[in-house]
Design brief:
This protein is α+β, with helices and mostly antiparallel strands and 69 residues long. It has a single domain, classed as Nuclear Transport Factor 2, Chain: A. The chain is 28% helix and 46% strand. The protein has a 5-stranded mixed beta sheet with strand order 1-5-4-3-2. The chain starts with a strand and ends with a strand.
């Protein structure tokens, strides 16, 4: 499935030193996924000792990354 990044998510990734492979890893190996508002979800995982939360929206054809925390 294709992963699309919002401009905001891309800026957050650069600021935090997170690459797309790490985002994909957290999405596929998340510890928990919480529902959020407006059809969004939040995937939470740990990577290199850091807790990372990814706000995303999933459709039948793609996943859009909204932001990272």
């Amino acid at each position: 499935m294709e992963i699309i990044y919002s401009d905001h998510a891309t800026k957050r990734m650069k600021r935090r030193g997170i690459i797309s492979l790490e985002v994909e890893f957290i999405l596929t190996h998340s510890e928990v996924v919480h529902p959020s508002f407006e059809g969004r979800s939040i995937a939470v995982g740990h990577l290199n000792g850091r807790r990372i939360s990814i706000v995303f929206m999933e459709t039948e054809s793609y996943i859009k990354i909204i932001t990272l925390m």
